[in-house]
Amino acid sequence: MAALDPENLHASVLLSETIRLLEPKPKEVFVDATLGMGGHTKALLETEATLRVIGIDQDDEALRAAKERLSGFSDRVQFVKGNFADIRKYAERADAILADLGVSSLQFDSETRGFSFRFDSPLDMRMDAESDALNAAELLQQLDEEEIANIIYRFGEERFSRRIARRIVERRNAGNPVSTTRELAELVERSVPRRPKEKIHPATKTFQALRIAVNRELEVLEGFLKDSVDILNPNGRLVIISFHSLEDRIVKQSFLKMSGRCQCPPRLPACQCGAEKLVEIMTRKPLIASEEEISMNPRSRSAKLRAARKLA
Ligand SMILES: C[S@@+](CC[C@H](N)C(=O)[O-])C[C@H]1O[C@@H](n2cnc3c(N)ncnc32)[C@H](O)[C@@H]1O
Ligand SMILES: [Zn+2]
Asked: Measured from the CB, is residue 8 less than 6 Å from ligand 1?
């Protein structure tokens, strides 16, 4: 294995663990389902000189950045604009598949795309800026109060979700709907009590929740994991890095089910979940970032990595 490029170590979460578990070998074909800025893929291509990677991202800006960063490897990377929910369309077979879920720093640090309250911009949050899905402002316009509250509670684990949803709908009814990041951040700040010891901004959870809803991040995950195992070659590896407890729960349960462990509720007369032994789980417990990595890259704080190997 070649030495890892230190430039990557800062940005790409759990990089050396990911490479180790993906086990790149000569002439193999990998799918990076969340190419982002190509950090993990670059390290993989550097590690194994004959490896090829199909890199998928739904974000054109990410693909542009990745193409530039990976320009030295263009004969070994195929760039695909698309959603990993359609992985079967983009890859027939693979020796390993990686998904590093969630937002990239390119998205989170964008001043115009609405992912962060650090910049005032339209409240968009679509990772695929060309999709016809509703953006965050449109969701807040169209959903009813209870649906908004549920999104903020479930995906953001925000205790004051009902209060926030009520204010969003009050504003909307007064003919002044929330349409920018600043408006939403201020509304949330006014809706939740001050928590003096709290380190994160009060709007963090609400923004995360909306992003997950806008991009249907949890809805596509289980199908993607199943399809990934289908297209893996025997002994193929699947590595998933998640950043949210609901995401990690889906990964954990899907892996257990695909390792043959029934996930049905107790006392059901017969198994109905379709558990079938297709993989061996490589990480009994999820891997997490070291203190050192967390201090260099705070985003790695909530990362959980799980890996599985398809049975021969
Ligand atoms: C955390 S970043 C990946 C960073 C990358 N591993 C690196 O080292 O540079 C996640 C990327 O996945 C993309 N993404 C998230 N969900 C996706 C989906 N369902 N289909 C395709 N791309 C997705 C996002 O647009 C984002 O660019
Ligand atoms: Zn079952």
From this structure: no
